[in-house]
Design a protein that fits this description.
By secondary structure, this protein is α+β, with helices and mostly antiparallel strands. It folds into 2 domains: 2-97, Ribosome hibernation promotion factor-like (Double Stranded RNA Binding Domain, 2-Layer Sandwich), CATH 3.30.160; 106-185, Sigma 54 modulation/S30EA ribosomal protein, C-terminal domain (SHC Adaptor Protein, 2-Layer Sandwich), CATH 3.30.505.50. The chain contains 3 helices and 9 strands. The longest helix has 26 residues, at 72-97. It is globular, with a radius of gyration of 20 Å. Associates exclusively with 100S ribosomes, which are dimers of 70S ribosomes. Interacts with 100S ribosomes.
């Protein structure tokens, strides 16, 4: 597994890097069969250290966690506890579904745009109906079953996930509803 351990405007020593690799390696060995790479970013927010971890699994799923503490090692420990909890739940769900994915998740390319909001009053008419694009990024659309898409959305902590449905070979959306349930949009 490849590790990318960085610090935003703080120095990350060799001891911390070895500690992170050892701890994360043991968690991945315990719960995730074939992780491909991990990105760990340490930063400072006011008086707290923040640790953000993203792990990509060979099945195409991505696990993310964030931890905060007044000490940098404690921030990583909080983050690794959350990561371990997510991966434990993921592994349990795989066992519950009685299905192991034989092949990695197929990813399709797509464009993702961030649009600027306009603070105009309702009385004034905008000059153009075209939205202002702030950023354009590459996005990957995974090919998953509905159950795997819900699991991926929960692991990533995202409010919505667009995916290609393996069963019907069309684009679908799962999202968290205001009532706490999961919604599934399956266009005909």
């Amino acid at each position: 597994m490849r590790y990318q351990i960085t610090g935003k405007q703080i120095d990350i020593g060799n001891a911390l890097q070895q500690h992170v690799e050892g701890e994360l390696g043991s968690i991945m060995g315990k719960y995730a069969g074939r992780p491909t790479d991990a990105q760990i970013v340490f930063s400072k927010s006011a008086h707290e250290f923040v640790c953000e971890t993203t792990v990509h699994l060979s099945t195409g799923l991505t696990a993310q966690a964030k931890g905060r503490a007044t000490e940098i090692y404690a921030a990583f420990e909080n983050c690794s506890e959350k990561m371990e909890k997510q991966l434990r739940r993921y592994k349990r769900r795989l066992k519950d579904h009685h299905k192991e994915r034989e092949v990695p998740v197929e990813l399709s390319g797509a464009s993702s745009y961030i649009l600027a909001t306009e603070n105009t009053s309702e009385e004034t008419e905008p000059d153009s109906l075209q939205p202002v694009i702030v950023a354009e990024m590459e996005a990957k659309i995974p090919s998953l079953s509905v159950g795997e898409a819900v699991m991926q959305m929960e692991i990533a902590g995202a409010p919505v996930l667009v995916f290609r449905n393996e069963g019907k070979d069309g684009l679908n959306v799962v999202y968290r509803r205001d009532d706490g349930n999961i919604g599934w949009i399956d266009p005909q």
